[in-house]
Amino acid sequence: MNKRSVLKQGLLCIVTVFLSIKCKDAKTNTKEVKATVLEEKEEINISEVLLKDMPDGTIVPEGMVWINGAEFLQGAVPQDKGTMEHEKPAHKVAVNGFFMSITEVTNDQFAKFVKETNYITVAERAIDWEDMKKQLPEGTPKPHDSILQPGALIFKKAKSSLPNLYDFSQWWKWTIGANWKHPNGPKSSIKGKGNYPVVQIAYEDALAYCEWEGTRLPTEAEWELAARGENVESIYFWGDDTSNLNKKANTWEGEFPIKNTLQDGYELRAPVKSYPPNSYGLYDMAGNVWEWTSDWYNTNYYKEQSAANTTIYNPQGASTSYVPNNPYAKEKVLKGGSFLCSESYCASYRVSARMGSSLDSSLEHLGFRTVVSLNNTKK
């Protein structure tokens, strides 16, 4: 399930429906780092360099837990029949221990950041057509000024069964005035929902929050290690059984995208901590809202790393983004699935599930959580 750029999808669903639409690269201060590969000929003993346990006397950042460092196989597990090609093959990685926030960043937490910094999210900013058209196929016509207004994508149900579930425009609606404060459109509100995960957050917005807080986004490998917990070889963070899925995660039950039977109690987002945590005490590592990671989304990355037959130490992911059906794409990896994930559609609440999303995408089922490296903990 590959989402399109929030703004370009909304505009160009009107302008030209056949385009696979992505977005401009957001400005960040982060450096794109190629994965570090430990080759056998280097004779590096991973057990000597890998940080597994939290050192004695370490101060745990508020709202976070320590994730033990480990070597593991990142990617699809053999018994998972629902895997997609970009999740395979599993490849060997080694990840140092780190701290991760126990929940997704909430509306209250993001509101505090905005209040202290006067930050304006991507979905709230005026649109510069001259800048946008540089990222689109030559000759793309300019939409009417009434359309070129700040907004984001919100989910809409279909009225009848859809024979083609590859056309995401059938259930996404570009809505002027949708943003983190109005996640389902200008008439919606987050009042009384301070403990819900903040959504309609573009990659640049997540980075700005992290810089303010003194944290960062997790790498894809860190996210997967943390999500697996003690179930390192399971399809889901709780094991392989989906018979009680509605008690484990906020997902879509029923026929997607027509009817949600609400067996898990929620139609859209749920408050954080509404479902049991994994063995590390992390909540919503399956379902509720997708979460940004710092890795570029590249469909070839897993195959390349597996073919190298090496262990990647603290992998930072691919050095560039690559989406074969769209040369304009600049996407980052999302993990965890959301309340829109259905067993019959994408089942992306599986630990190995991944998706790419353009950097300026703001969606009502996309948020983030943060991590801290040991050497960056506040004393």
List keywords for this structure.
four-stranded mixed β-sheet, 379 residues, alpha+beta, disordered N terminus, globular
Q: What features would you describe in this structure?
A:
- The protein is of the alpha+beta class and 379 residues long.
- 16% of the residues lie in helices and 15% in strands.
- The longest helix has 11 residues, at 107-117.
- The chain starts with 5 loop residues before the first helix and ends in a 6-residue tail after the last strand.
Give a topology summary.
Blueprint: H1 6-15, E1 36-38, H2 46-49, E2 64-67, E3 70-74, E4 91-95, E5 98-101, H3 107-117, H4 129-132, E6 151-155, E7 172-176, H5 203-213, H6 220-228, H7 245-248, E8 290-296, H8 301-308, E9 311-313, E10 331-335, E11 354-358, E12 366-367, E13 371-373
Parallel strand pairs: 4-9, 8-12
Antiparallel strand pairs: 1-9, 2-5, 3-4, 5-13, 6-7, 8-10, 10-11
What is this entry, summarized?
The protein is α+β, with helices and mostly antiparallel strands and 379 residues long. It is built from eight helices and 13 strands.
Distance between the termini: 41 Å
The average pLDDT is 87
> Into which percent range does the helicity of residues fall?
10-25%
- Helices and strands, in order, run as HEHEEEEHHEEHHHEHEEEEE
Which spans have pLDDT < 50 for at least 5 consecutive residues?
1-42
